[in-house]
């Protein structure tokens, strides 16, 4: 198949995913009846016969769980602001009151995100390295495949430079949520548990789609050369480590995380869950750079991501393999090893 036909097929599949997602999202709004959450008043849907009764029954079932659905928008925004101030207090107690009182709320949020990002990065990365290299390194790694300290130190250096800028994304997202510019809501009871679960899966579907395409676009010409190459210079097993997880050009790292933020503009999401998911990526990126294949389908684990760092054209996905499967860019570790063995056998026969 020619390159143009491949790109056309990929575009068609992407548009199909967007269309299905949009249809399900709109249907979810209608079923959950979350007009206050999405800041949009949907018209009553009139359907004759049993379909109307069924729709009304489903909406009533969703509404029965939303015990705080009538909470005014102003109250929701106030609760999100208070919750963000509480999160700031988890870190800002480290500073004297005289210093803390001089720092505006936004910059307290940014500082909190930076400190917690560093804590997750060094805490999880350090434990991961200790467990994988020092406790079980002789069992899990072939000789010469554990990264050298100079490579790990370089990854720490790059990550430290980027983290202050990474932290701007959650800080700006919190500001947008506090001002009511997003579809975020502060309490699960605002929509009810069934709608919370439904919107959670829709949110993560959008994130998976966005991260896949953002990552794939970053492999295009100038973007790869000036942004993404900073991460792909770690392109062999013995140079990859858990500390490579945040070792990006700052703009590259922000672009790959921004689907978590833009999805809030059209998909209702519990805000604290959103932020926990955003910080969970710090743990996830630690995991996918340890080069250990976990054999957990359909997770896009380290076995898949190591292939991405060696071929540059496979396995762009986030948590799951589905987007790569749909777009024709999936290569499993088993397939990669089989192809590698076949090439080696062919080379020997050619001698």
Secondary-structure blueprint of this entry?
Layout: H1 3-32, H2 35-38, H3 50-65, H4 73-92, H5 97-100, H6 105-135, H7 137-140, H8 149-166, H9 168-178, E1 184-185, H10 193-217, H11 221-232, H12 250-262, E2 269-270, H13 271-287, H14 302-311, H15 322-327, H16 333-350
Parallel strand pairs: 1-2
Describe the structure.
Helix 1 (3-32) runs antiparallel to helix 10 (193-217). The chain has a two-stranded parallel sheet with strand order 1-2. It contains 16 helices and two strands. It starts with a helix and ends with a helix. The chain has helices at residues 3-32, 35-38, 50-65, 73-92, 97-100, 105-135, 137-140, 149-166, 168-178, 193-217, 221-232, 250-262, 271-287, 302-311, 322-327, 333-350; strands spanning 184-185, 269-270. The model is unreliable at 35-47 (pLDDT under 50). By secondary structure, it is an all-alpha fold.
Question: Features of this protein?
Answer:
globular, two-stranded parallel sheet, 68% helix, single chain, 16 helices, mainly alpha, 351 residues
């Amino acid at each position: 198949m020619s390159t143009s036909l491949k790109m056309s097929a990929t575009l068609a599949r992407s548009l199909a995913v967007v269309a299905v997602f949009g249809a399900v999202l709109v249907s979810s709004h209608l079923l959950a009846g979350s007009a206050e959450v999405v800041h949009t008043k949907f018209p009553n849907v009139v359907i004759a016969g049993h379909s109307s009764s069924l729709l009304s029954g489903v909406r009533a079932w969703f509404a029965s769980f939303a015990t705080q659905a009538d909470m005014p928008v102003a109250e929701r925004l106030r609760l999100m602001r208070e919750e963000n101030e509480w999160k700031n207090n988890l870190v800002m107690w480290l500073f004297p009151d005289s210093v803390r009182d001089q720092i505006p709320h936004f910059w307290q949020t940014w500082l909190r995100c930076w400190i917690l990002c560093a804590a997750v990065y060094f805490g999880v990365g350090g434990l991961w390295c200790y467990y994988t290299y020092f406790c079980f390194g002789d069992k899990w790694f072939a000789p010469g495949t554990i990264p050298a300290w100079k490579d790990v130190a370089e990854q720490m250096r790059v990550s430290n430079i980027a983290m202050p800028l990474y932290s701007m994304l959650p800080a700006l997202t919190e500001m947008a949520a506090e001002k009511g510019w997003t579809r975020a809501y502060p309490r699960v009871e605002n929509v009810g548990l069934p709608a919370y679960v439904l919107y959670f899966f829709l949110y993560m579907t959008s994130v998976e789609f966005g991260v896949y395409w953002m990552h794939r676009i970053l492999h295009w010409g100038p973007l790869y050369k000036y942004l993404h190459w900073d991460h792909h210079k770690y392109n062999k097993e013995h140079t990859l480590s858990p500390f490579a997880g945040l070792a990006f050009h700052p703009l590259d790292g922000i672009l790959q995380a921004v689907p978590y933020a833009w999805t809030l503009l059209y998909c209702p999401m519990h805000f604290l869950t959103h932020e926990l998911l955003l910080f969970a990526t710090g743990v996830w990126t630690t995991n996918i750079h340890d080069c250990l294949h976990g054999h957990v389908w359909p997770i896009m684990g380290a076995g898949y991501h190591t292939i991405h760092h060696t071929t540059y054209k496979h396995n762009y996905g986030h948590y799951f393999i589905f987007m790569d499967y749909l777009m024709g860019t999936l290569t499993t570790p088993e397939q990669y090893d089989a192809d590698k063995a076949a090439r080696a056998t062919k080379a020997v026969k050619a001698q």
